[in-house]
TrEMBL record:
EC number, UniProt record: 2.7.1.71
Transmembrane segment boundaries: none
Chain positions recorded as Mg(2+) binding sites: T136
Coiled-coil segments on the chain, per record: none
Keyword terms: Amino-acid biosynthesis, Aromatic amino acid biosynthesis, ATP-binding, Cytoplasm, Kinase, Magnesium, Metal-binding, Nucleotide-binding, Transferase
Listed InterPro entries: Cro/C1-type_HTH, Lambda_DNA-bd_dom_sf, P-loop_NTPase, Shikimate/glucono_kinase, Shikimate_kinase/TSH1
Note accompanying the cofactor annotation: Binds 1 Mg(2+) ion per subunit.
Protein name: Shikimate kinase
Recorded family membership: Belongs to the shikimate kinase family.
Predominant subcellular localization, coarse grouping: cytoplasm
Cofactor requirements of the protein: Mg(2+)
Amino acid sequence: MSNSEVPQNTDDPRHALISRVARRVREVRKQKGMPRRVVSELSGVSPRYLAQLEAGEGNISIALLERVARALGMPMEVLIARNICVDPEAQRIAQLFEKAPDDIRAAIKDLLQVDKSASLRAGRICLMGLRGAGKTTLGRNVAKAFDLPFIELSSMVEDDTGIPLAEVLSLYGPEGFRRLEAEALERVIKRTGPFILSVSGGLVEQEAPFARLLSRCYTIWLQTSPAEHVARVRPQGAMQLAGDDEQQAVAKIKSLVDMRTPLYERAHAQLDTTRTSAQKSVRDLVSLITQMKFLTH
Ligand SMILES: Nc1ncnc2c1ncn2[C@@H]1O[C@H](COP(=O)(O)OP(=O)(O)OP(=O)(O)O)[C@@H](O)[C@H]1O
Ligand SMILES: O=C(O)C1=C[C@@H](O)[C@@H](O)[C@H](O)C1
Ligand SMILES: [Mg+2]
């Protein structure tokens, strides 16, 4: 390699390329902890020639560079490309990201705040909580108060499948229902404009859809005591509590609350409706949404 081959003008794109290759070879070799001697032995390129390459001297042939790349265990393009990440962990993550399904990719982008705009959530409000929390009752009334559409994921699933929720659950099972609900949620998230949304009590247990929900909607956890949950859903013929006496039903709800509390606590706000009339809770929820500026910010 003779110095006369090195383009000296720093504006020259060949100079930028040779400097970049030199830097990448140095970085990758150090990252892998490979002495120059080892790279030399593996590639058949002399240590002196490698030293020149790493100093940005000369103009290595493409065939020799390919041998160096192979010795370093990297595709040659990693040593050449303008924007590339040489961190092996980041490369592995990039490969996994490429193969991931759409919902996982969207959740990862949200977690990394690829789209940072805070207004992504403005006017998009989601009510969460166990059965009987009042998602439907309060959601419908609050939507009316703000003149917004009210969307229930479970109704979307019923429309999609053409059968009532109880039949969806017995036909598709809890996993099938969760998958259908996650698909419906994705459609809601892609909507433009404000809305009040209600999701099933179990959605918080689905990591990717829940992360997506948190990043694209303001979430409110509606709570009440286990005894009040039972008193509210029993008259609705809650399948989950069928056959349980009062004590068993309350214990079942209590253990579900305990298990899900760390998940529900990730909501942006909470409203306790215990020993409160539905009408008063509607007013409380309207005030909370207004105070928190969920419709505007
Ligand atoms: N403070 C209150 N807030 C909300 N609902 C109340 C309140 N007090 C009593 N209720 C009654 O409790 C019931 C709440 O049921 P609702 O169907 O709205 O709950 P949900 O969260 O939508 O449950 P599910 O998960 O089964 O869809 C209603 O019958 C409602 O009238
Ligand atoms: O809290 C839950 O896990 C559930 C609540 C219901 O809305 C249904 O979605 C289903 O029974 C699961
Ligand atoms: Mg409901």
